[in-house]
Specification:
The chain has 254 residues and is mainly alpha-helical. Helix content is 45%, strand content 9%. The termini are far apart. The relative contact order is 0.12. Keywords: DNA recombination.
Length: 254
C-alpha cells in the first residue's frame, strides 16, 4: 500500500488506520524430563533416532533438522552450522530455503551423545546407500528416506506421532520438542542469552516472552527457597529458641 502511494496509484494508505493488538504466544505443552527420557528410550532402534535425539538436545526446528547436510556438520569439533530449512512449497515441492531470520543462521555446539548418534546414523545411511544401489538419491542430507531423498515434513510428523504412541506419551506437536528443550534448559539454570542463541531467536525479548511463565515459576521457587532460609527458627517446648541461653539462677524472681 505504501508503495502504491509513492507511485501515486492511490491517494492514501488506508492500512495506516489499522490498529493491531499484541499477539498472545501460542500455548505449548513441553515434555518433562521424565517424558523426554521415555521418548528417547522409545526412539532406540528407530532409523531416525539421531534426529529425535538432536531435536530434544538442541531445539532445532523441524525444517532446520530436515535441511541439514553432512557438509554442515563437523563431528570432530562437535558443531553444526544451521544454514537452511527444508519446506514444502506450493510451486517447487520440497525446497531448501534460507533460515527464518538472519539470527536463525547460526553455529551450535553438539552434545557428545548427539555426535555419537550422528556417526552411527552415517554408518546406517551408507548401508542404505549400498542396498539401494543405482536408485539412491545423492541429496547430501543428513536425514533422508531409505532411498536417500529428502524427508517430507508431513511424513516426519507422522513418524513422530507413531513414536509418541509407542512411548505411551500424550500427543504433542513436533514443535513442542523445541519448547521442551528451552524449558528443560531453563529449569537447569541455563542463562536466557545462551538459550536465545541456541534457538536462533532474533532478539532475547522473544525468548523472554515465550518462556516468561517458566521464568516466573523458577523465580517463585527461588524466593520460596530464600524465604525458608530467612525464616525464624522453630521455637522449643520451653518457648525459647535453641540458640538462647537460660537465664542465670540469680535472675529468677523469688
Amino acid at each position: 500500500m505504501e508503495h502504491a502511494v509513492r507511485e501515486e496509484e492511490i491517494p492514501r494508505n488506508v492500512a495506516r488506520n489499522v490498529r493491531t493488538g499484541t499477539p498472545r504466544p501460542r500455548r505449548f505443552e513441553p515434555l518433562t524430563a521424565d517424558e523426554a527420557r521415555q521418548l528417547l528410550t522409545a526412539a532406540q532402534g528407530h532409523r531416525l533416532h539421531a534426529l529425535f535425539e538432536l531435536a530434544l538436545h538442541t531445539g532445532l526446528r523441524k525444517g532446520e533438522l530436515l535441511g541439514l547436510r553432512w557438509e554442515d556438520l563437523d563431528l570432530d569439533a562437535g558443531t553444526a552450522a544451521i544454514r537452511r530449512t527444508l519446506q514444502r512449497t506450493t510451486t517447487g515441492g520440497l525446497t531448501a530455503l534460507p533460515t527464518k531470520t538472519r539470527a536463525s543462521e547460526r553455529r551450535i555446539a553438539l552434545p557428545a551423545r548427539c555426535v555419537h548418534s550422528l556417526k552411527y546414523h552415517h554408518e546406517l545411511q551408507q548401508r542404505e546407500c549400498e542396498t539401494a544401489g543405482a536408485a539412491w538419491q545423492h541429496s547430501g542430507h543428513v536425514f533422508t528416506t531409505a532411498q536417500g531423498g529428502p524427508i517430507d515434513p508431513t511424513n516426519l510428523t507422522r513418524a513422530f506421532n507413531t513414536l509418541l504412541r509407542k512411548a505411551g506419551l500424550r500427543r504433542i506437536r513436533f514443535h513442542d520438542l523445541r519448547h521442551s528443550t528451552a524449558t528443560l534448559l531453563l529449569e537447569q539454570g541455563v542463562e536466557l542469552v545462551v538459550i536465545k542463541e541456541l534457538l536462533g531467536h532474533s532478539h532475547i525479548g522473544v525468548t523472554a516472552t515465550v518462556y516468561a511463565h517458566v521464568r516466573l515459576r523458577l523465580q517463585r521457587d527461588a524466593i520460596d527457597t530464600l524465604g525458608t532460609a530467612l525464616g525464624s527458627p522453630e521455637p522449643t517446648k520451653t518457648g525459647r529458641s535453641d540458640g538462647d541461653e537460660p537465664p542465670p539462677c540469680n535472675a529468677l524472681v523469688r
